[in-house]
Amino acid sequence: MDSKTEKALKINEITKGRICDHCLGRKFSKELEGPGNPLRGEKIRNLLRESDKIVDIDAPCYVCQDLFQEIDDKLIQAIIEKIKDLNLEFSSFVVGCKLPLEIIDRDEKLNQNLEVVVEGIKKEVNREIGKLLEKHLKQEVDFDDPQIVIMVNFKRKKPSFKIQINPLFLEGRYLKLVRGIPQTKWPCRKCKGRGCEQCGFTGKMYNESVEELISPAVLEKTQGTGSKFHGAGREDIDVKMLGKGRPFVIEIKEPRKRNLNLKNLSQEINKRCQGKVKVLQLKYAKKFRKAQIKTTSSTTSKTYQARVKLNKAISEDKLKNLQKLTLIKQRTPLRVSHRRADKFRFREVKNIKAGMISSDELELIIKTEGGLYIKELISGDKGRTIPNVSEVLGTPARCVELDVLEVGDQD
Ligand SMILES: [Zn+2]
Ligand SMILES: [Zn+2]
Fold first, then answer.
1. Integer Cα distance of 45 and 25 in angstroms
2. 170-192 as b/e, with b when 16 or more CB fall inside 10 Å?
3. Which long-range contacts (CB under 8 A, 24 or more apart) does 335-339 make?
4. Nearest to residue 76, comparing CAs of 99, 93, 57, 59?
């Protein structure tokens, strides 16, 4: 007797002949050609008939209780209808399922008994539903980057399903052309966003933010249920973001529309931002960019323009002392120490250009490694940043105006 027949007989014995073609074929997926488990199952069944062991196909399957018969036209039609109702735009999908635990259990136990390692029943269920949907949707299942997930639940008597809409990511660069706007929505410190007298029942510390200026137009066009703004670092509220802008990713939750005219969308955003904020180079992004722009932000170089007020007048030749500012040891500034870990960091100043505005006022163009706090580089932050501008000029210095001119390199 060959090994296939031997295995088939063992299955026949364990299941008392109650096994469907799907579940039977699945156990032979490594040694028999398909295509598909049902065909494999049929071949094995014929093998058993030859050896006078008839497999009873009328009783419900020992493994799946004939679950595969529930994957029918009715289910597929209902899914298609639902997608139509939601008016969804998507170009990739994947199928997931929930199965009763005892089915998964029996499937695995059978594998253990037979000492085989083959795919689990869940994978086959997903694939079978996927194949049928592919025909209707005229799209192939995409495991890597599905825009929607069709989740079918077989745990109850009748299968039910949910359409999960994965987020859409757009990225671009933003300019902040006025001071006094935070990057993201900032909940009121006192009421934590619930709304109180202090915040005028807005629940916010600031009326608007870069996020809140950009998001509404995006949400409208995509018909999403919410959004999240991820910046490549952030400038202080009183700092402008100029030059080529700061990279950001906007994540739109449950978007129904994905086929966007990004040029029109940028125009619409910029119209609504009324010159306070401007969006450049808006494009589609993959999910990984959300984390990537955050991590690269601390390593990419930045260029700042600072207006600096000095306690006493200095002569212009003192400015050359600024070239001593190369490697900076900076302890977490007092200003942010309540929300950031207290630690030392070393950051490189790549270049400083200085000009006198008057005898006690300077303009500095500072190019540095990411992650250096500029206001403290100027003041010295009570000795927490060394060396610093105050120290090398020999008089206390204070940043009165700061703009970011460049973040990272242009791609
Ligand atoms: Zn079965
Ligand atoms: Zn409040």
1. 9
2. bbbbbbbbeeebbbbbbebeebe
3. 335/375, 335/376, 335/381, 336/373
4. 93
Cβ contact 228:201 at 8 Å: no
- From the CA of 303, how far away is ligand 1's center (Å)? 65
Cα dihedral 98/99/105/110 (nearest 10): -110
Catalytic residue annotation = 236
Those residues with Cβ within 8 angstroms of residue 222's Cβ, 6 or more apart along the chain or in another chain: 168, 252, 255, 256, 257, 258, 260
Q: Evaluate whether 104 touches 64 at the Cβ level (below 8 Å).
A: no
Ligand lying nearest the CA atom of residue 67: 1
Nearest ligand to the C-alpha of residue 55?
1
The arithmetic mean of pLDDT across residues 16-25, rounded, is 90
Please give the pLDDT value at position 53. Answer: 65
User: Could you tell me if 396 and 390 are in contact, meaning their C-beta atoms sit under 8 angstroms apart?
Assistant: yes
Q: Range with the lowest mean pLDDT among 95-99, 297-301, 313-317?
A: 297-301
Kindly report the pTM of this predicted structure.
0.84
